[in-house]
Write a structure and sequence with these properties.
This protein has nine helices and three strands. The chain is mainly alpha-helical and 205 residues long. The chain is globular, with a radius of gyration of 17 Å.
Length: 205
């Protein structure tokens, strides 16, 4: 089933609701994800969605300060855009699927340039798991995302509760969790090998 959706244009329905847009869905997803994982980092400002027509582009969060010709390197990278693929502009289900994944990355935004390293399997696994709770019939064929989801899925929702606790009570960012002992201390039922794999760095795509 295809979900009726316009990327940007809405109109009022006879029942006084409004037709669905990506902006509305972003609000829905963020509410769900913040309930699941805790409030998003307030140091970052989400500024909108764009579609990337670059050949072989992948959906991602993007820090526009990085690509601005007049950028001031002394200022923080605190604005975020969600980039979806050009194909998603005319495919509502694909757009929703991509958007759901990227909304997870708005919780603890991870700027590879600023961080000096990539995020972990934990964050990508949660993002991949979440997007497949929203749209089930689009497969992810990239092996690293399949692996990340397979590591996370058996541990949900307990893993999400653990991450929420670590974020809200210990000020730990998801992508910065690189010590398996931290996960095992707060989620002792997890297989130690799973904890080790979830804390490992995710390959850059």
């Amino acid at each position: 089933m295809t979900i009726p959706l316009s990327p940007f244009t809405t109109s009022r329905n006879p029942d006084d609701t409004y037709s669905l847009t990506l902006a509305q869905l972003t609000s829905v997803f963020l509410n769900e994800i913040e309930t699941l994982l805790g409030p998003r980092d307030p140091n970052y400002t989400y500024v909108g969605i764009e579609f990337d027509s670059t050949p072989n582009a992948s959906p991602r969060i993007w820090f526009p300060h990085v690509g601005h010709p007049d950028r001031d390197e002394s200022k923080p990278y605190n604005h975020i855009i969600i980039r979806l693929t050009e194909t998603a502009q005319s495919n509502a289900n694909l757009a929703i699927w991509q958007l759901a994944h990227e909304c997870v990355h708005l919780i603890d935004p991870w700027n590879i340039q600023a961080e000096g390293r990539q995020s972990n399997y934990l964050e990508e696994g949660i993002a991949t798991w979440y997007q497949n709770t929203i749209i089930q019939d689009i497969p992810n064929n990239l092996p690293q995302y399949v692996e990340a989801k397979s590591l996370v899925e058996p541990h949900m929702p307990q893993l999400a509760q653990t991450i929420k606790h670590l974020r809200t009570q210990h000020n730990l960012r998801i992508g910065a969790i690189d010590d398996p002992d931290i996960l095992l201390k707060h989620y002792p039922d997890m297989n130690p090998k799973d904890a080790e794999n979830l804390c490992s760095r995710f390959p850059i795509t």
